């Protein structure tokens, strides 16, 4: 789907966020970008989304052209919902920005809310929803256009462990159902090992790719109790220690 070739990014204040990052992203991947805070994970996600531009290197999409509007969904750390709009109106927003009126988009909005289990809360305002429910609305909003690529920037970081585990499991169901490509930023080794098929470890700033590991797990709610999961967490932990020391 996408080739990143020796990307670099330095900000105007002199901070070098990324250096010499090369990576291949394949259609259908679930890839986790894992590393300490400040290592450039979010910057790399913004480059992929086209929200920022690199200072060096290149991004090459298969077929030559970047995905069209609506083909990339983005979920931020915060749900970033419109506080005056109900859940359905928030989900409708990407379609509204593309010129779709509410009535014509109703079926797609409802389908997106059903996917995240919030069909009974379509008329609820963000202040009436829990943190986990607000994040579900944000995910539904990102999925309503049925994107080819879903970018997620630590979306569950602020949630309690119970809600986080439930949303991780629900996200995997959605990924399998929609067959989209997911790039998931996290600083949690446990989260990366549970969710991702490919785990890309990044060094402290300036962010570089230290190594990549493949997961052999087929995640279920019981996976976290399995020896395979424990072994993968240990493998990634050792690799991250090596990356931090390097």
Can you walk me through this structure?
The chain has 246 residues and is α/β, with parallel strands linked by helices. It is 37% helix and 23% strand. The protein folds into two domains: 2-67 and 148-245, Rossmann fold (3-Layer(aba) Sandwich), CATH 3.40.50.300; 82-147, no CATH class. The protein has a six-stranded mixed β-sheet, sandwiched between helices. Strands 2-1-4 form a three-stranded antiparallel β-sheet, with helices on one face. Helix 2 (87-97) crosses helix 3, helix 2 (87-97) packs parallel to helix 4 and helix 3 packs across helix 4. The longest helix is centred in the last third of the chain and has 19 residues, at 227-245. The chain is globular and about 55 Å long.
Give descriptors for this structure:
six-stranded mixed sheet, Rossmann fold, 246 residues, alpha/beta
Q: Give the % helix.
A: 25-40%
Tally of strands: 9
* Low-pLDDT stretches: none
- The ordered H/E elements are EEEHEEHHHEHEHEEH
Shape: globular
CATH first level of the largest domain: which class?
Alpha Beta
Radius of gyration: 18 Å
Oligomer: single chain
Number of structurally distinct domains = 2
* CATH H-level homologous superfamily name of the largest domain: P-loop containing nucleotide triphosphate hydrolases
Question: Would you tell me the overall average pLDDT?
Answer: 92
